[in-house]
Amino acid sequence: MNDEMTQPALRPVRGVAHSAVAAFVLAGGAWAARAVWQVRLAATGLPPSGLPDQGDGRHRPLTGLENGYHVVSAVGDATTLLCAIAFLLWLLRVRDNAHALSGKAPRYAWPWVYAGWIVPVMNLWVPRGIVVDVHHGSAPGERVPRAVNWWWGLWLAGLLSGAGLMYTVPTDDVIARAYTDVRFLLAADVVIVGAAVAGILVVRALTAVQQRRMG
Question: How far apart are CA 128 and CA 133, in angstroms?
Answer without folding.
Answer: 9
